[in-house]
Specification:
The chain has about 425 residues and is an alpha+beta fold. It has eight helices and four strands, in the order H-H-H-E-E-H-H-H-E-E-H-H. It has helices at about 10-35, 45-50, 55-75, 115-180, 185-220, 250-270, 310-375, 380-415, and strands spanning about 85-90, 100-110, 275-285, 295-300. Strands 1-2-3-4 form a four-stranded antiparallel β-sheet, with no helix packed on it. The radius of gyration is 39 Å and the shape is elongated.
Length: about 425
């Protein structure tokens, strides 16, 4: 007995063709709407929301105020606040002859040679470093946001196409069951259709779970705030123009760190000893009862001796920091250049892959129309028709994934160039 029973039933065959054609058109339209971006990009909004939760963003104003306060301190007349000195001497407990002495004075620290200029230069370097550090922190966050965003877009497209495939498989299985009851198809065809439904259910469940996990990772960056799955789009970022950024934020941050380390070493080199102090005091005293109080004025200077090993340790630590960051800058520059070359190559490969995938999808659609006509005329069987439909669905899925891959590659290229999400 043949597994496939073919009977001349023109009306039933025509009905089957109309059903399959409707399913094909529905799947194609839904697949296109799921795979192609049609709205404004929300990647920038997700990034901005995530940035507001970052520690660097919340501490930015305080860091700016600290750097500006240090710059103001470098413009003062004294490196440290003056100190008030008050003392009193008496012989009341030793003989009580009336001897009294009271002294009031103020001690003002003095700048060492070159210390004031070095302090001002260090303050300006730290002000610049605060801003460069901000841009570098934003770029590091942008890398995580972009990775999570495009991972979710891939998972979302896969889940939508898997759901559509499940719906189509169930409709086709129901139609095959009706035709088997009518005697147009064999039971093996129904088993094949039901097996396709089971496979589609497993694939849809797996894709939905992957989409939920990717969505949770993206929402974690924004504190639970993320675009709704039903309204989000996969719109890509604009391709970077021929003019690249003047300076990469990560390299600028390291260069400012080097400047801070070098100017810190320069400041320490002027501090071979503690700051001297200028003291101005007045004294009012008498020698015994009955004598008149006399008043004197004291002007003195206190000069500390050298710091010795303490100074050597501080200057060596500052110089080591500058050398370490300089080496790190060289390594980071090489890494960024390699990333830029790799990202540019990936964009070109993604464009080629997208062109090939779209051409394959077009050819698969044309083949589907050919076999649809052949099936309508009774020249091809149901298994062949299902195989052609599966190939067309896979081609459409590959084209949709290729669009996401190209958008992700462009985003990665912007990341390597130091550009924030747009």
């Amino acid at each position: 007995m043949s597994l496939y029973k073919k009977r001349p039933a023109p009306i039933r065959i025509a009905l089957l063709v109309m059903t399959l054609s409707g399913l094909v058109l529905t799947a194609q339209a839904q697949g296109t709407s799921a795979a192609e971006p049609t709205g404004a990009a929300s990647l920038k909004q997700v990034f901005e929301t995530a940035w507001q939760r970052q520690p660097d963003a919340r501490a930015l104003q305080s860091r700016r105020e600290a750097a500006q306060a240090q710059a103001k301190a470098a413009g003062l007349l004294s490196p440290e606040a003056p100190s008030l000195e008050i003392s009193q001497r008496t012989d009341r407990t030793t003989g009580n002859n009336g001897a009294r002495e009271a002294e009031v004075g103020i001690a003002v620290p003095l700048w060492l040679p070159g210390q004031r200029t070095a302090s001002a230069e260090l303050a300006q370097a730290e002000i610049s470093f605060v801003e460069r550090r901000l841009l570098a922190s934003q770029l590091r966050l942008a890398s995580s946001v972009r990775d999570s965003w495009w991972a979710w877009q891939r998972a979302r497209v896969d889940a939508e196409l898997a759901r559509e495939q499940l719906v189509n498989a169930r409709r086709l299985a129901a139609d095959v069951a009706k035709r088997m009851q009518a005697g147009d198809l064999a039971r093996s065809d129904q088993h094949q259709a039901e097996g396709a439904v089971a496979a589609a259910e497993a694939l849809a469940a797996q894709a939905q779970a992957a989409s939920a996990v990717a969505f949770a990772h993206l929402a974690a960056l924004t504190g639970g705030i993320a675009p709704a799955e039903s309204t989000s789009t996969g719109a890509s970022e604009p391709s970077p123009g021929p003019s690249q950024p003047a300076h990469h934020p990560l390299l600028a941050e390291l260069e400012d760190r080097i400047a801070v380390a070098e100017r810190t070493a320069n400041l320490i080199s002027t501090q071979k000893r503690s700051n001297p102090e200028l003291t101005v005091a007045t004294t009012r005293d008498r020698g015994a009862f009955g004598e008149r109080y006399g008043q004197t004025v004291l002007i003195g200077i206190r000069v500390p001796l050298g710091s010795g090993p303490r100074y050597d340790a501080r200057i060596a630590t500052a110089q080591a920091e500058a050398i370490e960051v300089q080496s790190q800058l060289t390594l980071e520059r090489d890494r960024i250049q390699a990333d830029q070359r790799g990202a540019a190559a990936r964009v070109e490969a993604a464009r080629t892959q997208l062109n090939a995938a779209e051409r394959r999808a077009q050819l698969a659609n044309e083949s589907r129309s050919f076999f649809d006509k052949s099936f309508r005329l009774g020249e091809s069987d149901l298994p062949t028709r299902l195989r052609i439909e599966a190939e067309a669905a896979e081609a459409a899925r590959q084209a949709a994934r290729s669009r996401i891959d190209l958008a992700s590659a462009i985003s990665a290229l912007r990341q390597s160039l130091g550009l924030l999400p747009q």
